[in-house]
Every structure is written in structure tokens, then in C-alpha cells.
């Protein structure tokens, strides 16, 4: 299996090379060069498997230059040994007759990013060895809150790697920031950027594309890679949990073999929902993919009209991980939806860069609308959804998952579609303690309370334990204090890698 760049100007590479480099030299994203399919029998067989067995099966189909022993070893390290605080790794919670919540936040940092970022740090050093790499891997990450901490935790003290995480100052929740700035490890660096996530992500991509910076760090014995979902090694472990959810529905008798289900995915950088799309393409019985956005609703507009227009106001919301106007992974979807037409993708990406917008052809839009549906929730609707869901079901949603729940309700209203639906729950409610506590207890209960008091208040009010990964945050000293302007990110990287 070879991987191709969505922009068509880079040579095809092996899976190991794609994982090691993260982004293609022409600025495109790597995608599998041929279709990967599973049979109905193989999907049905998932019902009798553990999460780890499902992961080995799916990863093995994509990472063809890794042995099955290597993959099994990575899976065991990522999901075994009590790493996740749920035996099932990604448990499925039945909310009612139609809706199930796929809890993807039982890993060490309490967000769905752990599902892939416990795996990538195990794949990447092996990928480097397989490709004869003699340089240390310098991983650059742009985060709107969740990826950063998960990547730091995954890569901390991994030999042969260094990691630098950039996050937008005041653009993440207080708990998310605290998780990152207290990060321990000899190879980790965390830098706040005086800008929003889009500026942060664009800054990182500019560094990847800058020949002078690449040359300078090369002389110092480094090469760049990415732990964002632009790296194929981030996406493939995310495909697994869609199969896993379906396996659980089958084993509990909630669906018949072959019965199609919907997935609702709170969406920012489009990586999570794209993983669901690949699962569908492989043969998982999926009806619709419901893309849930917050007030930064660039994707909702795109899916409705075919016009992607980032030239609009950027809002800071209570679902900060989704405060994104340039969704990296849409590029992969466009590549697939155009029948792998790299020329068109390149033109659209150039238009996005230069004019801030592009419009896809009618036929591409029809293809997208046949699979995807989208709507968005503002902060008020998000808060109401948390409160109503808690009152009705006794189930606590974080702000991002609440966006998903709100959009699902809108979808049902609009379409009457009765397919069973799985809502991807992307983070623990404790990571967004202030908003979640305010939603269920009222604003006055949280006024003047500090972050750690709020963790306790939320735990006492709901009877839910504060997750392991957040419990000891209060005691940890702040280790990272550097803040830079977007234009200074390059210099910061060069200084860190001096
Ligand atoms: N929502 C993300 C933004 C980066 O997305 P990624 O999937 O490309 O890593 C975050 O929490 O950082």
C-alpha cells in the first residue's frame, strides 16, 4: 500500500514514510493510494472482539509495512495496562432508543485525542527506524486545546523525539491550559501564541514548508513531523473506534448485521469525522455523517452550499477545541470526492490561501450532501443542551458533545430519520468544568470559583469522580511560560531546537 499526496506533486510513499513525515513535501496530505475494504463478515466478526483486537485488524489493513506483531505490540502499549479508565477503552452509552454516546475520553488526558495519540508515539519511532532515519524527530503541534495535551502526554520522553506544542493564548479552557503548561518530560515544549487557532495552525504549516528552517534544523540533526490529524498516523487509529462502536451495537443486539447507523461528530479540524468517512468507504454500514459545528460554522455553510469561506469573524466559544475556520482535513475529503483529482484540490487550496474562499462543483457538492448533513449550535443552545440532557437522562455532556447532541436533535426534526445514531463524545465534561457546572447548577454557583474548586463542585453535584488525569493538576508546578506572536513562531522553533 502506497500513500499519495492530495496535491499530486510528491512521490508516493510507504505507510512508514507517511507517518514519519506527517505532511507531504508539496504541502498536501497523504491518503491511501488504493481502497481498503472490509467484508460484511469481517464487520460482523468485530462483535466478538475486544477493542485491542479491533484495532489490530483495522491498523493492519493500512500500515502494510508494519508487521502484525509490531502493530499488536503498539496496540497493547496504547490501550492495555490500565492506560484507559474504562475496560472497554471506548464504551458505548445508550441514551435512548435511537441515540448512543461513544465515550472517547477515558484515556490519560480525558479527550478523544488519546485514542490516536497513545498510538502515534508508538508507531512513529518504528516508522523512523523502518525508513532508515538518522535524525531526531521534532514534532510540531498546533492545538485548540485537546490535541496539545494528548500529544505531550503521548510523546513525553519518547527516545528520538522532541515535541513543541503551540496553543492560542486565551483560546483554550483553563483546565486545558493548565494540563499543557504543567507538562513534565525532558523533550517537551509548550508555547502560547498571541492569536487564534487558525493563525497557530497556519504558522506551524508555514514552518513545515519553509526550506530554510528545514535546512537549519537538519544541520542540527532534526527533521519535522506532525502529531495533528494532518498526519495519517493520527487518523488511522481514529477509524478504529467507529468499527468498535458498531461491533458493540451488534454484540448487544441493538442493530442487525448490515443495518446502517448514523454518526454525529462534533467537528473542528475535520479529522474525526473524516475517520468516520473512511470507515464508511471501507464498508462499515453507515447511513449519514452528521457534522456538528459551533458558531464558527464554516463547515455547516460549506456542506449546505459548496462554498468554503473563511473570511468571516472568528468567535471564541465555550467549545474552544472547535474554534477553527480552516479545517485541514477537508482537503482529504475533497480529494476523495473528486475521484482523486489533485489538480482541482490544489486549485481550491490555493484559492483558500490567497482569497480565503473557494466553491466546489455541483457534482462534488451532491456527493458530499449524499453522505454529510450539518448544522451548528451557539453557546446558549450548547448550555441548554447540557442542562436538558442532564435533567432528562442524568447524563453529563461536555460542551463539544453537547454541540453534537443539539445538532442531532435538529437533524431528527429536519429529516425524521430513524436510523440508530452514535454521537462521538469527544471530551470529559470535567475539562470544561466552568461551562458544564454553570449549565447544570446555574451561573451563580460558579461565580468567583477557581478551576480546582469547580472540579470538586461538579464532582459533588453529579456523583461522578474527577478523572484521574485531572485530579492532581492542582499540585503540579507550571513549567512552560513562553508566549510569542504568530510571526515569532519560527524563531521560537529555531531557538528551542538550537
Ligand atoms: N481540536 C483540535 C485542533 C487540532 O486538531 P487535530 O485533530 O488536527 O489535531 C485540538 O483540540 O487541538
From TrEMBL:
PROSITE patterns: DEHYDRATASE_SER_THR (PS00165). Keywords: Amino-acid biosynthesis, Lyase, Pyridoxal phosphate, Threonine biosynthesis. Its cofactor is pyridoxal 5'-phosphate. CDD domains: Thr-synth_2. Pathway: Amino-acid biosynthesis; L-threonine biosynthesis; L-threonine from L-aspartate: step 5/5. It comes from the Bacteria. InterPro entries: Ser/Thr_deHydtase_PyrdxlP-BS, Thr_synth_N, Thr_synth_N_sf, Thr_synthase-like, TrpB-like_PALP, TrpB-like_PALP_sf. The modification N6-(pyridoxal phosphate)lysine is found at residue 113. Gene3D superfamilies: 3.40.50.1100, Threonine synthase, N-terminal domain (3.90.1380.10). One of its GO terms (molecular function) is threonine synthase activity. One of its GO terms (cellular component) is cytoplasm. Residues 3-79 form the Threonine synthase N-terminal domain. It catalyses: O-phospho-L-homoserine + H2O = L-threonine + phosphate. GO terms for biological process: threonine biosynthetic process. Residues 94-356 form the Tryptophan synthase beta chain-like PALP domain. Its EC number is 4.2.3.1. Pfam families: PALP (PF00291), THR4_C (PF24857), Thr_synth_N (PF14821). Belongs to the threonine synthase family. Catalyzes the gamma-elimination of phosphate from L-phosphohomoserine and the beta-addition of water to produce L-threonine. This is Threonine synthase. It comes from Desulfofundulus thermobenzoicus.
Amino acid at each position: 500500500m502506497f500513500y499519495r499526496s492530495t496535491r499530486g506533486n510528491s512521490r508516493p510513499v510507504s505507510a512508514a514514510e507517511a507517518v514519519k513525515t506527517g505532511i507531504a513535501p508539496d504541502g498536501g496530505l497523504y491518503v491511501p493510494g488504493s481502497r481498503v475494504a472490509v467484508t460484511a463478515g469481517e464487520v460482523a466478526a468485530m462483535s466478538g472482539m475486544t477493542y485491542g483486537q479491533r484495532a489490530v485488524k483495522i491498523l493492519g489493513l493500512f500500515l502494510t509495512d508494519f508487521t502484525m506483531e509490531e502493530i499488536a505490540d503498539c496496540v497493547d502499549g496504547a490501550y492495555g495496562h490500565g492506560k484507559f479508565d474504562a475496560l472497554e477503552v471506548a464504551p458505548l452509552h445508550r441514551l435512548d432508543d435511537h441515540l448512543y454516546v461513544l465515550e472517547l475520553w477515558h484515556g490519560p488526558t480525558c479527550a478523544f485525542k488519546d485514542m490516536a495519540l497513545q498510538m502515534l508515539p508508538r508507531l512513529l519511532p518504528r516508522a523512523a527506524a523502518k525508513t532508515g532515519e538518522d535524525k531526531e524527530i521534532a514534532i510540531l503541534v498546533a492545538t485548540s486545546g485537546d490535541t496539545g495535551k494528548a500529544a505531550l502526554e503521548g510523546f513525553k520522553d519518547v527516545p528520538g523525539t522532541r515535541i513543541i506544542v503551540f496553543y492560542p493564548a486565551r483560546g483554550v479552557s483553563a483546565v486545558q491550559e493548565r494540563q499543557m503548561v504543567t507538562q513534565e518530560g525532558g523533550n517537551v515544549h509548550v508555547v502560547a501564541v498571541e492569536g487564534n487557532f487558525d493563525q497557530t495552525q497556519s504558522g506551524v504549516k508555514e514552518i513545515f514548508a519553509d526550506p530554510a528552517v528545514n535546512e537549519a534544523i537538519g544541520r542540527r540533526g532534526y527533521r519535522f513531523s506532525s502529531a495533528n490529524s494532518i498526519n495519517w498516523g493520527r487518523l488511522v487509529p481514529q477509524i478504529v473506534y467507529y468499527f468498535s462502536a458498531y461491533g458493540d451495537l451488534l454484540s448487544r443486539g441493538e442493530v442487525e448485521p448490515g443495518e446502517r447507523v448514523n454518526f454525529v461528530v462534533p467537528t473542528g479540524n475535520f479529522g474525526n469525522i473524516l475517520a468516520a468517512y473512511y470507515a464508511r468507504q471501507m464498508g462499515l454500514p453507515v447511513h449519514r455523517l452528521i457534522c456538528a459545528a459551533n458558531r464558527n460554522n464554516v463547515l455547516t455553510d460549506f456542506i449546505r452550499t459548496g462554498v468554503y469561506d473563511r473570511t468571516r469573524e472568528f468567535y471564541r466559544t465555550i467549545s474552544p477545541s472547535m474554534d477553527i475556520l480552516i479545517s485541514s482535513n477537508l482537503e482529504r475529503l475533497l480529494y476523495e470526492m473528486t475521484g482523486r483529482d489533485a489538480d482541482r484540490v490544489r486549485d481550491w487550496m490555493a484559492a483558500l490561501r490567497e482569497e480565503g474562499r473557494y466553491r466546489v462543483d455541483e457534482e462534488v457538492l451532491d456527493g458530499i450532501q449524499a453522505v454529510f448533513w450539518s448544522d451548528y449550535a451557539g453557546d446558549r443552545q450548547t448550555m441548554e443542551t447540557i442542562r436538558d440532557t442532564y435533567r432528562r437522562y442524568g447524563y453529563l455532556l461536555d460542551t463539544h458533545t453537547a454541540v453534537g447532541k443539539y445538532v442531532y436533535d435538529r437533524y431528527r426534526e429536519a429529516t425524521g430519520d430513524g436510523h440508530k445514531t452514535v454521537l462521538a463524545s469527544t471530551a470529559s465534561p470535567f475539562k470544561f468544568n466552568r461551562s458544564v457546572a454553570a449549565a447544570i447548577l446555574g451561573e451563580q454557583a460558579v461565580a468567583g470559583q477557581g478551576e480546582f474548586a469547580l472540579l470538586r463542585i461538579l464532582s459533588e453535584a453529579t456523583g461522578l469522580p474527577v478523572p484521574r488525569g485531572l485530579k492532581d493538576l492542582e499540585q503540579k508546578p507550571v513549567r512552560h511560560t513562553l508566549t510569542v506572536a504568530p510571526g515569532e513562531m519560527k524563531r521560537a522553533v529555531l531557538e528551542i531546537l538550537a
